[in-house]
Every structure is written in C-alpha cells, then in structure tokens.
C-alpha cells in the first residue's frame, strides 16, 4: 500500500495542511491500495492563490500560443513515457479491465492533448476585421483561473479535456481529482513538473465534496469545468452564479441507440455490446436504451442477451476480463436497486440481474438486459451508470425519433443502418449534443457536450478551446 503526504501546488510538492487521508480502494478486491492527502480549506486556498498569482504575474498567459505549445509538447512526451504506469494505476483505482486501459483511459487523453498542442502551435490570438464603422482588432484572451473537477470513471482522459485547452488558451488550473481516483493525477503532476510547466500553472489535489465547494466558491476562480452527475452540476451552477463564473458542465446521459430496419442485426448487436457494457456501463455516453423495430425486436433482444450472458466478468488484471467491477459498494447497491425497480415496473429480465456467483470480493454486477421496456419506466429515463440495458420496441422511424427525444437528457445518440445518409437524416432529428452513425465515436477535433439536462458548453474541437477564451474587441481609427 502506498502512503502519500504531499500535494502539488505552485510547482512544488508540499505537505498537505491536514492530516486527513483518503483511502483509495480497489473495486476489484475491496482492498485499500493507497492513502493520499485529503485537501482541506487551507490546501484549496493555497492552490487557488498559486493559480491566481501565476495568471496575474507569471509568464504563461503572456507567452505566445506557439510558445505554450512547445511546453505542451514536452508534457505530452512526459505523459507518453508514463503511459503504461498511468494505465496500470487507473486500473487499480477504478477497475477498468486491462484490455481497455491503454486505449480508453490513456491513449484517448494523449490524443486530446496532442490535438490542442497542434492547435496552439498554429493559432493566432488576434485578427483584424473591417467593420461597418471601421477596422477593429478581435483579440482572444484567456478566461483566467480554472477549477477543473473530475469524476472517477475516465479520469485522465477527462482531465485532458479540461487541462489541454485551458493550457493552450493561457489559463492556469487547479485540478481537483476524484477521491476514488487520485493516484493518476499525481502522475500528471510529475509529468507537468518534468515538462517545465511554470509554477502555479497546474495545481493538483484530491478532495471530497466540501472542499470542492470551497474551490468553486473561491473568488480567485474565474471558470469551472466539471464532468459528473446532473445533480452535482446543478449545485455547481448555483455556487458559480453570484460571481457569474464561466461554466462548462458535461453532465448525465440516457442515450438511445436507434436500430433501423435495414441494419444487420448480428453486426449491430455485437457492436452495441461495446457501446453499452464497456467499463461496466460506467460512462456518460453509454447507449443504455436500444430501440428496435417491432418485427426485429425478439431477434435483436435474443442476440444481444446471448452475447451479454457470455461476457467475461472479472477483476481488472484477470486475463480476458471484459466487464469489470463497479466503482464502489454504494454504486453496486444502486444498480441492483434499479434492477429491482425495473422488474417491479413490468420490464422482463432477459439476462443478468444479479451479482456473479464466482466473485466473492469486488463490486460486480452481471451484464443485465431488460426487454418489454416502456420509455416512461425509470430504467429508461434515469441514468443507472452500470451494465444495464433497456430494449424498447418501436413501430416506425417517427416513433423511434420521438422515443429517443423523450428524455430529460441529450448527450449522445447513435443510429445503426446500412444506409449512412439515412442515418445522418435521423441524427439531424434527434436532440443531442453529439451523435454517431454505426459507431460510438467522440472525435477530438469536433465539439462534445450535451443539451437539456446533459449540461452546457462544449469540450473538444476549437469550441473546446473557445470555452477558455474571452473575446475582446479593440476598435481603431481607419
């Protein structure tokens, strides 16, 4: 077991102000694997002060974007050297199966960092326009100090969605790691230090909800970037409102996969296994509602349930594991409660629904499939965040679109068809922030985010950089 005493503030490793420690528990074994400092009010204040000083007086915001890109490239190199260690660490912390660790947890984050590094290298901070009344200079300035608040499910990737564009813009950052997964953030701090990031540009600590609220409310913070539940997002928005702090909130989802009548069912159901059961369904864009036309419904459910029932469930580093544990005992009980609710409301269990009998340690739930689901059931309307899928029948494409849109959420969606253009037309009618045809793809060069209760703002793409910029207009004489 590792025991850590320091936190990374102002470019230095310093002892935490509090003696309180966070126990990092492996969800595969239920064993404590590390103790790390739990940041208290003094630690949070120190981190914000360091970020504020670095922004107001340090070199980072005053560098050209190309100069910042050089340092970001060095950070990418340092993180690449640590990629295998990052992967192993994240697997230990959150239970992601080994086969998914590099591609899903680490490499995706490196791709995002590389994208923003290249964007910064060629980005012009100012442009001159010929206005209606005369010329003007439009200048994009960094928004200021950023509180980046992370969840536990894909911590490094989601850190890069916030840290990379913030650095490219010239902002300084206080990164608050989730208490379940703080260890990979320590590796990020080591890489930032080795890459030569100026002191105070990136400050990293781990903390629970109380210290997180202190970070959000601190007057030295200009912007909050958060990924997590809609309920917590509401609280963050309320805390940020009095000071009109800028917000990027990527929140919950209840995404629908629309399987059209011309889709190859064997191929589609196999692909949807990955779009639903990856990381035990603990990802925000999971296609947890699968909509199938009535005449193909029984066949589709049978195919999917048959595959789900044979998926290898096991610990992170067991050979062949595809479905790992849930993050905590509390989350496992929550998922099991939803399974009971679905059965009480009339849904029929087609696969799973229980804890695996062969795993006496770890927080596991077998891949679970429900049929005979109506879209007004809780299993179809609320985010379960587990390996649970609801199959919903539809009559025609108009009804499928209506069902997909009948949700408080609007984060992602997919359509499955042999006619790509037909799929694009369906995508245009479904109200989500992102959408995929015949895949579940999040493109780093294109904006990602949600509508309705799935959040506000966008990450990735140029829009992700713009979220960390404040446009300024300077009019000049003709």
TrEMBL record:
Instruction: Enumerate the UniProt keywords alphabetically.
Output: Oxidoreductase
Task: Cite the active-site annotation.
Answer: 250
Oxidoreductase as a keyword?
yes
The yes or no answer to whether the keyword Oxidoreductase is present is: yes
- InterPro entries from the UniProt entry: Ald_DH_CS_GLU, Aldehyde_DH_dom
One Pfam family from the record? Aldedh
Q: Aldehyde dehydrogenase domain: which residues?
A: 13-474
Task: List the PANTHER family hit by this protein, alphabetically.
Answer: ALDEHYDE DEHYDROGENASE (PTHR42804), ALDEHYDE DEHYDROGENASE-RELATED (PTHR42804:SF1)
Family in the record: Belongs to the aldehyde dehydrogenase family.
Q: What is this protein called?
A: Aldehyde dehydrogenase
Q: Which organism is it from?
A: [Mycobacterium] fortunisiensis
């Amino acid at each position: 077991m590792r025991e850590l005493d320091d936190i990374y503030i102002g470019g230095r490793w310093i002892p935490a102000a509090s003696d309180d420690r966070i126990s990092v528990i492996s969800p595969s074994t239920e064993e404590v694997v590390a103790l790390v400092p739990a940041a208290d009010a003094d630690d949070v204040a120190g981190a914000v002060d360091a970020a504020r000083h670095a922004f107001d007086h340090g070199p980072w915001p005053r560098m050209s974007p190309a100069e910042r890109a050089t340092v970001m490239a060095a950070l990418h190199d340092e993180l690449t050297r640590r990629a295998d260690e990052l992967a192993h660490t994240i697997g230990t912390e959150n239970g992601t199966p080994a086969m998914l660790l590099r591609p899903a947890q680490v490499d995706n984050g490196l791709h995002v960092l590389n994208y923003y590094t290249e964007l910064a290298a060629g980005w012009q901070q100012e442009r001159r326009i010929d206005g209606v009344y005369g010329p003007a200079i439009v200048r994009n300035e960094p928004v200021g100090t950023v509180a980046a608040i992370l969840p536990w499910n894909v911590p490094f990737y989601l850190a890069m969605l916030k840290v990379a564009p913030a650095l490219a813009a010239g902002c300084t950052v206080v990164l608050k790691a989730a208490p379940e997964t703080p260890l990979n953030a320590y590796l990020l701090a080591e890489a930032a230090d080795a890459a030569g990031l100026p002191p105070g540009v990136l400050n990293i600590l781990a903390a629970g909800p109380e210290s997180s609220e202190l970070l959000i409310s601190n007057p030295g913070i200009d912007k909050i970037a958060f990924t997590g539940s809609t309920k917590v997002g509401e609280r963050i928005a309320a805390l940020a409102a009095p000071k009109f702090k800028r917000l990027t909130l990527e929140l919950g989802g209840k995404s629908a996969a629309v399987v059209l009548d011309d889709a190859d069912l064997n191929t589609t159901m196999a692909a949807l296994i990955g779009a639903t059961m990856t990381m035990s369904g603990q990802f925000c864009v999971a296609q947890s509602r699968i909509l199938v036309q009535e005449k193909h419904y029984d066949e589709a459910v049978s195919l999917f349930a048959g595959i789900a029932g044979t998926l290898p469930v096991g610990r992170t580093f067991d050979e062949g594991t595809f479905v790992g544990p849930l993050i905590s005992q509390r989350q496992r009980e929550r998922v099991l409660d939803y399974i009971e609710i679905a059965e009480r409301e009339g849904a029929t269990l087609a696969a799973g629904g229980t804890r695996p009998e062969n795993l006496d340690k770890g927080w596991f739930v077998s891949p679970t499939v429900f049929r005979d689901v109506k879209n007004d059931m809780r299993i179809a309307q609320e985010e379960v965040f587990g390996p649970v899928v609801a199959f919903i029948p539809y009559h025609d494409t108009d009804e499928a679109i209506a069902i997909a849109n009948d949700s408080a959420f609007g984060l992602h969606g997919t359509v499955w068809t042999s006619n790509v253009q037909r799929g694009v037309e369906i995508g245009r009618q479904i109200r989500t922030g992102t959408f995929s045809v015949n895949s579940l793809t999040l493109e780093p060069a294109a904006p990602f985010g949600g509508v309705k209760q799935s959040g506000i703002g966008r990450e990735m793409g140029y829009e992700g950089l713009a979220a960390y910029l404040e446009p300024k207009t300077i009019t000049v004489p003709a």
